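Could you help me review a protein record that somebody else here produced? This is what I was given.
***
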Amino acid sequence: MTRTRTLCLAALFAGLAANPSAGQISVGVKAGASLSDLVFAGIEINDRELRQGLVVGTALTLPVSGRLGLQLEGSFAQRGATLTFIQLGDVGYALDYVQLSVLGRASLPLGGSGSSLFLLAGPVIAWETSCEATVTLVLPGTTETATCDDERLNTPSKPVDFGVAGGAGVQLALAEAMHLSLDLLYTHGVRSIYAGELDRTTHNRATSVQAGLVFPMGR
């Protein structure tokens, strides 16, 4: 039994070592779509419409140990939602962010083709580049659009957001020096972005699907 376990472990490590991309640095570009929401506490919401947005960025993957690595991402992401408040009306938020993510990455090779499955998880910090609010009041039935910091709307937002992200994906070898990456990522804001004086909180939530090209560096 001990000999069998030893042979199995040896075969496992040999398989991990056989895939040259495991210990390679790689760079990539990616783009996709997101579906985002804003979660409010302290005020009753009657209905909501999620915002469909754009996500585009670059990624640098660094090997750490075996199948473990770090994926550093810089991206532009659109967030927001349209919310219906009882006896008030609709408030639509359109927020844009520049994000930096530091994601732990665990990979599982798919045969000897250089392709792999991977899991991602880690913190995200986002800097707001713009925030626009559109308020439609039930009475007197008017609609007004302005920046979130406009005092007339009372919808101020914090310039920096913090969150955690997690997801999974697949990387497919198109050629020796170029791979195709597909991933699904969920981002959960942990800091309230509402900066006003009312007793309420607002948190970002988003699910994104992205595709991109990855270029391994060296052998």
In short: The two ends are 37 Å apart (CA to CA). DSSP finds one helix and nine strands in the chain.
